[in-house]
Amino acid sequence: MSRNFRRASAAVLAALTAASLVACSSEQAPQSASGDGGATTDTITLGFSQVGAESGWRAANTKSIQDTLTAENGFELKFSDAQQKQENQIQAIRSYIQQQVDVIAFSPVVESGWDAVLEEAKSAGIPVILTDRAVDSEDETLYESFIGSDFVEEGHRAGEWAVEQYDGEGMKMVELQGTTGSAPAIDRKEGFASAIEGSDIEVLDSQTGNFTRTEGKQVMEGFLQKYDDIDLVFAHNDDMGLGAIEAIEAAGKVPGEDIKIITIDAVKDGMQALADGKINYIVECNPLLGPDLADVATKVVAGEDVEKRIVVEDAAFDQEGAKEALPDRQY
Ligand code: GYE
Known about the structure:
Blueprint: H1 3-34, E1 44-50, H2 56-68, E2 75-81, H3 86-98, E3 103-106, H4 115-123, E4 128-131, E5 145-148, H5 151-166, E6 172-177, H6 183-196, E7 202-208, H7 213-226, E8 232-235, H8 238-250, E9 260-265, H9 268-275, E10 281-284, H10 290-301, E11 309-311, E12 316-317, H11 319-325
Parallel strand pairs: 1-2, 1-3, 3-4, 4-5, 5-11, 6-7, 6-8, 8-9, 9-10
Antiparallel strand pairs: 10-12
The structure holds beta-D-fucofuranose.
């Protein structure tokens, strides 16, 4: 067979694979991954593009994925860290398409701008699973399933607690938002705002701290210089709340008392600060998505139906609750 002919027939095959989509890719993909064709337990090659390493939550999420998608569990995991940059994630996804992995999973740093690369995966017959964060694509056939928490609900629970505790006291609040354009920042803001509507909690200011401790601290320092009457901080994650604690202490005030703090995540450091009285309330966001991802990936590759939306259950903790939960906390 001439080289050109072989190349041409490979192109025809690729087109056919793309045309017949799910059924075809799910039958062929495991063989290309293991290369042994006849084995009954084929390894699933999964390319995962992680957002970054911005927070304690992210570290726990990465660990859960790496601990679950192991060779013993039948996976070959290709993992890349996008350092909170969408262009890096798009590049990683394109490289997974080129490597013809069996399935691609990623946690989209922001909600918009994914259609083109998702179309590319679809044409290559490679199924995509979203974990943790959503995309705003109208075409839901671009991904198989979205596994993650309900962020609007998390924000709403945080706001409800603020209203229960503080309505009637004329509290003045500042908000530390997550990464601009990310699903958790958009949704937690919306959920919290809807819960405090009609209360006398007044939002003085709201800025992004990009989900990191350093930026949370910087933004809080700015707020403390600008306003001398802050009573309450709502931080979209623990890390920014922990940064805010440093800024508040440096300004000579007592976090958790002079300035109350509500956060989301409930990772170890946040829970410790809650138990220590420096944070007042935390709504949990469960980062342990590895097992659900493994399950959905296995089904998708086998051509089985999966749920389009898998909502992860979250708890919430006050200071007493944190003291009780801390000893058994996994993350
Ligand atoms: O709350 C935050 C992380 O997407 C739910 O991202 C995740 C958020 C989490 O950086 O700590």
